[in-house]
Amino acid sequence: MPKAAPSFGLILPPKDPGEPSYRWLYAALRLEILQGRLLPGARLPSTRDLAAQYGLARGTVVNAFEQLKSEGYIDGSLGSGTYVGKILPESLLQVAYRDIAKPAAERAAQTRRPATLSDYGRRAKLFRNYENRPTRAFRANLPALDLFPVALWTKITQRSLGRISTHQLMGGDPLGYLALRQAVAEYLKSRGVSCQPQQVMIVSGVQQALDLTARLLVNPGDRVCVENPGYSGAVQVFQALGAKIVAAGIDDQGISIRRLPSKAVRLIYVTPGHQFPLGTTMSLARRLALLEWARKSGAVIFEDDYDGEFRYAGRPIPALQGLDTSGAVIYAGSFSKVLFPSLRLGYLVIPSHLLPHFEAIQSLTCRHAPLLEQLALTAFINEGHFGRHLRHMRQVYAERLSVLLEETRRRLAGLLEIRGVEAGLQTVGWLQDGLAAEAAALAAAKRNVQVTPLARVSQGSALPGRAFPGGAGLEALQLGFAAVEAKEIRRGVRELAIALEGERKASA
To answer: What is the pTM of this model?
Structure first.
């Protein structure tokens, strides 16, 4: 039976198992106040009397009163009398018991209008890039995480934390930890990038680099050029800011210059080192033509060198940034594809005239990249571990690519063709004999094989066949190999062959 006291009249509800007694009493008193049965200014019994009346420890009552007082429901002090607060929001006195019992989110929906989103808020869409599940053939855009030296990284991180100074704990430079910027500038010399450490900015990755650049350079309605097909994460950033997307096709030398507008373009996004997703390398002639186009049009070029560390054939062509003489190129790279995605560290190389503006916008958003990770990465690079890991991964990925190419020639002849692969973590397989990419992807998924139709990363309707190497259209599949072991690659090709053969027979 619930306990009642004639002198006060508070009825305590049944107590839930494990619920602290003071929270139980607090909730009952709060409900009495909210329902108006305890009016503003009403005097409450002393903690001693209330404890005796309900058979509670006095400390329980004291704690309940203190909680109510901290939230503004009661006033007064122990020993001088305790009263229901005289000034309570009118809405509190009108809350019915059935509303109090509802979840907070449901009550909020009944008592206030939905938040009005900004134009940016309405345009922004969730971008899913990484999926937390076991790797299978042919998952793309992922390094071989099982081969990353976790124990070594842990040791370096612990050492870096042990050496961190009080000054470093206070915060950091918006442009990033200087020693890391120096290490990045030195490393980028091998990529044909021409820069000083002062031009390097440490960011959380290429995605943040795109967001910062777009916010700084693009207004709603401005035109932004992208490769087609291309990286959807960049397109979504530009669309969220209200930019007008101008899609330019790709041929065997890179982005088609003749498809670019002659003026009124604020920004152009390109992946010249290893075009995403086709894998072509922009020729030197095309790079020079693009730089000349940017000079005449006044556009800024965003060069995304997302996985250029991994090259398997031919000599690398210098980065666009290294060929630029007019300050038109912003160069971006990331350690996510090289080390591990959750590291969330990347870099921008910024023309000097734009550097103060990037520094300002970074200081207003995330202030600076996490310092501990920067310290660890600096040591990882300067002690030679980064270079050794790169060399090891190039060898592993080259071997896995070789297995993929060999198995494809052996089992997928007449169904799917992979043409020359020079770099990267993934490639494209061109479907043969009239096979449709979407149907092929669905059939492959039923056999636990992951492939991505090229049309999913294209803008608008299918482009003319001449925009693609070999005269192919959009009927192609993206195939990742870097994160997939040789055994799984062989299984994946075998199962994909069965799926494609089934689709060919079904469409015959």
So the answer is: 0.79
DSSP per-residue string spanning 450-507: --EEGGGGS-SSPPPGGGSGGG--S-EEEEE-TTS-HHHHHHHHHHHHHHHHHHHHHH
Contact 368, 362 (CB under 8 A): yes
Question: What CATH number does the domain located at 388-507 have?
Answer: 3.90.1150.10
Asked if the 148-383 domain carries CATH number 3.40.640.10, the reply is yes
Domain with CATH 3.90.1150.10 in the chain: 388-507
pLDDT tens figures, 230-251: 999 999 999 999 999 999 999 9
Q: Which residues of the chain are in CATH 1.10.10.10 domains?
A: 21-111
Inter-residue contact 83 to 43 (CB < 8 Å): yes
Which architecture characterizes domain 21-111 according to CATH?
Orthogonal Bundle (1.10)
User: Does residue 345 or residue 316 have the better pLDDT?
Assistant: 345
Q: Which residues contact 192 (CB under 8 A, 6 or more apart)?
A: 316, 317, 318, 319, 321, 322, 323
Read off the pLDDT band of 103 (50, 70, 90): low
Residue 127 CB coordination number (10 Å): 12
